[in-house]
Amino acid sequence: MDKFVKLGQDMVLLWSKYKVMYWAGIWNTLKLAFLATLIGCFIGLLCGVLNTIPYTKKDPLPKRFLLKLLRIIIRIYVEVFRGTPMVLQSVFIYYGLPYFSNNALRFDNIFAAALLIVAINTGAYMAESVRGGIISIDPGQTEGAKAIGMTHFQTMVNVIMPQALRNIMPQIGNNYIINVKDTSVMFIIGFTEFFAQHRYIVGVNNMYFPSATIEMIGYLTLTLIASLILRLVEKLMDGSDSYELVQGDQLVMAAGTYSHPDRGTPFDEVNREYTGEEKRNRIRIGLKNRNGSTRGGR
Predict the structure, then answer these.
(1) Under DSSP, is residue 122 helix (H, G, I), strand (E, B) or coil?
(2) For residue 89, what pLDDT band results from cuts at 50, 70 and 90?
(3) Which of 51, 127, 250, 281 is the most exposed place for a label (fewest CB within 10 A)?
(4) Tens digits of residue pLDDT in 175-220
(5) Residue 152 scores a pLDDT above 80
(6) Residue 240: what pLDDT?
(7) In angstroms, what CA-CA distances link 239 with 15, 136, 242, 245, 259?
(8) How far apart are CA 191 and CA 145, in angstroms?
(9) Whole-number Cα distances in Å, 20 to 11, 48, 106, 145, 201
(10) What contacts 24+ positions apart, CB below 8 Å, involve 196-200?
């Protein structure tokens, strides 16, 4: 118990002394994670749409060649950035580009370099998520859109993508939460995010575990808040579950397919609107009209 008390005291001491640095690291982490996720979603959306453009053997040869080439390039991009750690990607992009270009391609802004690295990594994951979201839509909707004369672009914008975006919204949230944590590797290129501040503070006072505990609580708080916000967004996108079909459609009413929540269908023989004695009286009247008398009158 004394150890926990000592840990709490050390954490309070560190926070009171270095809270400005911790807050600066949190701000840089949130800014980098949000912007990188936004740009990564755009990259993934573009790759996912290009990767699902249909073509047949009847299409012109240049179109088929271009689409196949695009799919190969996208596949290589996705496999490379999904199959290697972000810390190594940071090293290759930040230090490798100046090395191979004799400093012609180098980053003078560390934040821009970190943003590019995280965004490209996120785009590789989002490309597959978008592709899966598009494929998950019923092909009959695409065929129906083509049947009424819509182009592929119009079909994607007005029919497929609104549904696909709802399907991939949880994955967008997951990528943002992952980016909040994975930005901690950006210290390798000198970007001072939340974890980099922890490394600096520990180097000054050697209080590693109390500072690491502050980091853990901070990252957990950031991800929990993000999860709550994303669940609220998903709930708003789902809309209300309580609704009633419009009764103004005469075709639906005449066909007897509309079912009122309380009264059933207007043409249903077993209608919950008529129960008990009233139901028996209606059956008796119906038999009398058909046979000329009721069974009890014979």
Answers:
(1) helix
(2) very high
(3) 250
(4) 999 999 989 999 899 898 999 999 999 888 888 999 999 999 999 9
(5) no
(6) 64
(7) 42, 21, 9, 15, 21
(8) 48
(9) 14, 41, 31, 56, 12
(10) 196/25, 197/18, 197/21, 197/22, 197/24, 197/25, 198/25, 200/21
What six digits make up the tokens of 241? 């579950």
Q: Which two tokens stand for residue 124?
A: 């590789």
Amino acid at site 65: F
Q: Decide if 271 contacts 264 (C-beta within 8 A).
A: yes
Place of tokens 């690491």: 212
Burial string for 178-188 (b: 16+ CB within 10 Å, else e) reads: bbbbbbbbbbb
Of 291, 213, 249, the closest CA to residue 14 belongs to 213
Angle at 34 between CA 33 and CA 39, to 5 degrees: 100
Copy the structure tokens of residue 184. Answer: 């901690």
User: pLDDT by residue (tens digit) across 139-151?
Assistant: 888 888 888 888 8
